[in-house]
Amino acid sequence: MEALQAHRKLTVDGIRISAVWLMGELYAGTRFEPVWTDPKKVDELLRAITDSRFDGLNPQDYYLDQLQKLRAEVRANPDVGNRVDLDILLTDALVRLAYNSFYGKVDPERIDPNINVAQPWRGAKGAAGVREFLASKSLYEKIQGLRPQHPKYGQFRAALEKYRLYEEAGGWGRIPKGKVLSVGRSDPRVPAIRHRLAVTADLPAKLDDGSKLYDAELEKAVHRFQKRHRLPPGDLGTKTIKAMNVPVNQRVGQIRVNLERARWMTRDIKPTRIVVNIAAFEIYLFKDGKLVWQNEAQVGKTYTQTPLFVDGIEYLVLNPTWTVPPGVLEDSVLPAAKKNPRSIEERGLRVYDRSGRQVPSSSVDWKRYNASNLPYTIRQDPGPTNPLGTVKFIFPNSYHVYLHDTPNQLGYDRRLRAMSWGCIHVQDPLELATHIIDDPKNWSLQAVNVQVNSGKTKTIHFDSPVPVTLMYWTVEVGDDGSVEFLADVYDRDGRVLRALNGPFKLRKTHRRGEE
Question: What pTM was computed for the model?
Fold first, then answer.
């Protein structure tokens, strides 16, 4: 501990210790005697470390092999050096595991600027927290209690266990490309397809009989598989074969990534809330924990991605005006205006100066400006071509991202609906508005429609913000335990997985002295 005070670094058995900020206080509190004096607590910690794999974490991040080796050495030769090394390493392992169980291993804001969901630092207890854990009746249960308690986290854990079992059993083989298969056709690939679907229980095992005939039962199994992978049900073609050929270890990694996201985002989730799953292009409304409304959504394009964050809807506007956001100004409106100032009016837009007066677009020298220095506001009146449609739901944020209607109703017919400038377009948004206003006497769906049909703008404020969470799940788990895999439309999974597989790191804002 004196060396730690002198150098602010601590190395044990060649390992650099992470939790240096609490070590001095912890061991000074015991007059520099070991704190891991109960073998039962050591057993419980090693059990918790071993079981961290069921949460998609890596037990070696918490020194599993080194701890087992050191413990064996202490038992064989309990000299002071071995005992000290083991005690310090056990403490650091506990802190690391507790940290990752609570916050997640990956710093989301480091890997993606479109994510703003990091948990605030709650680790001020330091040495007192370690003593609290060691004094608990069951250290194992205390550590397990740090995991998110939300049902979705448990569903992901069960899915990981299921696909790890598939992996341990050998997974599945690769199916060659070939012609599209429909009922009544025979094909030499059919036995491999039957086996592939039997592995994941899409096809009953008894029907994995080696037959080369693509029959009605096999078609049902293919449709189950297609549903689980968000593919349109139909004949067995290239897209379905491609999904079947994704290796089991890749699916395991995909589930691990979503467990990590659950550690980021389900900690303080409210029972009444709006949830958008960006990867699923879907929006859900929960009241008191129960799903009361669900519909389709359009989200940001791959180059104008919808961010991940948690906020609260403060008010909604019926028949809203649309103020052109900076991204659209920079990418679309200003380049067109520099070529042809009349393009502003041609698009149904109006220009207002800083005093709120409308000015003709022809009076503006557009070539002088970009989105960051433009001294004008460009706005569109309510109407059928207004990009916000009939209603917008406002939660002020730095991304300028909201929920709203859209005139592009044909977009909901598409399976992949990444087509907005970043906002979330809501199908049947007036139904959602009626639900969250929650005033059937004054604002029934009929009354909302009457207001919209009047053409007049109406703002409705809420007594308290309605929580909204923008999530990105590429795995969903049904009530029956069926695991659905979604397309990683923003190519985000890989970055999370690489960080999960990388070394342990404290987030910069969580390091001692930077809380």
Answer: 0.92
